[in-house]
Design brief:
There is one protein chain. This protein has helices at about 5-35, 60-65, 125-140, 160-170, 185-190, 220-234, and strands at about 100, 115-120, 145-150, 180, 200, 210-215. It has about 230 residues and is an alpha/beta fold. Strand 2, helix 3 and strand 3 form a beta-alpha-beta unit. The longest helix has about 35 residues, at about 5-35.
């Protein structure tokens, strides 16, 4: 083969190798960009402070907050917090026979507070099982922002005795206001299906935000009260 043809073939091979190297280098840059999204990436893996289905909202780390400023401060909710959708104003609280352990003479006097309304009767074993939790709830949150109103609605005639109701409250450490609903006006008007015990959580604006029938869900109730108090102060 002529020497000039050999030189031409060598030149072509060298040009091809240089071009391939440039293409490989460009592909490497693309790979680096894909594997490290910027702080403004809105894909699920990079979203900062996204609320999970459980309504838990996490506070972004300091570095992420610096890279991606937010206009609204993040709020941390207890992971046990249940759905607290607004169910509208609570039913009218009808007159009761008597109020115990309070100077209040009407339910309206608790306006502006988060209120746990518990329907109970002292002879009910299911109600008795909730007493430790209710005491803990009152010890933790009771004060200017939160109140429990125990609506005592008798199941049997012996539970209509006001002195017996007061004695049961004292013996079990139930120190919050008690509405003696002997005619069951509220027990019936607040519930389509009537249960002992049953708890409603009312927010500071007077709206029903939570409803639980029976025993249990204690961590959930605690978290719900905390969330509603925090909301009222926001």
């Amino acid at each position: 083969m002529d020497s000039w043809r050999v030189a031409a073939l060598v030149s072509l091979v060298l040009v091809g190798a240089v071009a391939a190297g440039l293409v490989a280098t460009a592909g490497g840059d693309d790979d680096v960009t894909d594997s490290a999204p910027s702080a403004t990436d809105t894909s699920p893996a990079m979203t900062v402070g996204t609320a999970a289905p459980s309504l838990e909202v996490t506070t972004p780390p300091a570095s992420a907050a610096t890279d991606q400023p937010t206009t609204t401060p993040a709020t941390t909710l207890d992971p046990d917090t249940p759905d607290l959708s607004n169910r509208g104003p609570h039913p009218e609280f009808l007159p009761v026979q008597q109020w115990l352990q309070t100077d209040a003479t009407s339910f309206d006097e608790f306006d502006g507070k988060v209120v746990a309304v518990q329907f109970w009767t002292f002879g009910c074993s299911n109600c008795q099982a909730t007493f430790p939790h209710m005491r803990d709830l009152y010890e933790k949150y009771g004060g200017d922002d939160f109140e429990i109103v125990g609506v005592h609605a008798p199941e049997f005639d012996f539970e209509r005795d006001v002195d017996a109701i007061a004695a049961a409250a004292q013996e079990n450490g139930l120190t919050w206001p008690i509405a003696v609903d002997n005619d069951k006006l509220n027990f019936r008007s607040w519930q389509d299906r009537r249960f002992w015990p049953r708890i409603f959580l009312i927010d500071a604006d007077g709206n029903v935000r939570y409803d639980h029938i029976g025993e249990g869900a204690y961590d959930e109730i605690d978290a719900a009260v905390g969330a509603l108090i925090a909301e009222s102060k926001a």
